[in-house]
From TrEMBL:
Family annotation (SUPFAM superfamilies): Peptide deformylase
Keyword presence, Protein biosynthesis: yes
Described purpose of this protein according to its UniProt entry: Removes the formyl group from the N-terminal Met of newly synthesized proteins. Requires at least a dipeptide for an efficient rate of reaction. N-terminal L-methionine is a prerequisite for activity but the enzyme has broad specificity at other positions.
GO molecular function: metal ion binding; peptide deformylase activity
Name of this protein: Peptide deformylase
Gene3D superfamilies named in the record: Peptide deformylase (3.90.45.10)
Biological process terms in GO annotation: translation
InterPro entries the UniProt entry points to: Peptide_deformylase, Peptide_deformylase_sf
Assigned protein family: Belongs to the polypeptide deformylase family.
Binding site for Fe cation: C89, H131, H135
Catalysis performed (reactions): N-terminal N-formyl-L-methionyl-[peptide] + H2O = N-terminal L-methionyl-[peptide] + formate
Keywords from the named record: Hydrolase, Iron, Metal-binding, Protein biosynthesis
Lineage summary: Bacteria, Bacillati, Actinomycetota, Actinomycetes, Streptosporangiales
Cofactor binding remark: Binds 1 Fe(2+) ion.
Amino acid sequence: MAIQPIRLFGDPVLRTPAEPVVDFDKELRKLVKDLTDTMMDAPGAGLAAPQIGVGLRVFTYYVDEQLGHLINPDLDLGGEVDEEGEEGCLSFPGLTFPTPRAIRAVAKGFNMHGEPVTLEGTDLMARCFQHETDHLDGVLFIDRLDSKQRKLAMKAIREAEWSGLSAPVVKISPHATQGRAL
Ligand SMILES: [Zn+2]
C-alpha cells in the first residue's frame, strides 16, 4: 500500500494543467498503484494524479465495483445532460453540489502498459470520467456549477474546517460524501 496525502482546494497543483504521459515505465505503474490505493482508502469513486501532487494525465476510478485507470484521456460526450446529480471531490472534503454533467461519455486513452483503451460510461461512471479529466486540465467541479450553486459552494468552502489548509491533514469520514467523491 502506498497511500498518499490528498491535496485540498487552495493547493496550486489542483489549478495546474497536467502533462501528458510519455514514458509508460515502472514509475507510471507505481503512480497508478498509489492513486488506486489512495482512492480506495479515502474512499472515493475517482482520483486524478494532481490530487496527490503529480502533474501527469492519469486518473483512477472505482464506480459500480469497476476498478480501473486511464492515461492521457480524451473524452467524447453525449448531448444529454444531468443537471441535478450531486457531485463531490476528495479535494473538497464533505461537500457535494448538484453539478451538470453529460450522462454519457466515451473516454479514450491508454492503460499503464501503453495499450490503447476505450471506456464507455453512463451516469456516475460518465460523471467520474468528466470530473477526473477536468482535474487534469486544472478545472474543478465548482467551476461547473451554476451561479447560485457556485455562491453556495464558495460560502461552504470558506466555512469548511479544512479551508485555508494547504497541507493535507484532513482524513475525511467515509460517510461524508456518500461515496460520490471523485
Ligand atoms: Zn475531484
